[in-house]
Amino acid sequence: MNRSQDWFRQAERELEQAGWSLKGGYPELACFLSQQAAEKAVKALCQERKVEAWGHMITRLLHTLSDEVVAEPQVLSAAKALDRHYIPARYPNGFETGTPADYYTTEDAEDAITDAQQIIEFCKQYL
Question: Which of 1, 37, 81, 114 has its CA 20 to 30 A from that of 58?
Answer without folding.
Answer: 1
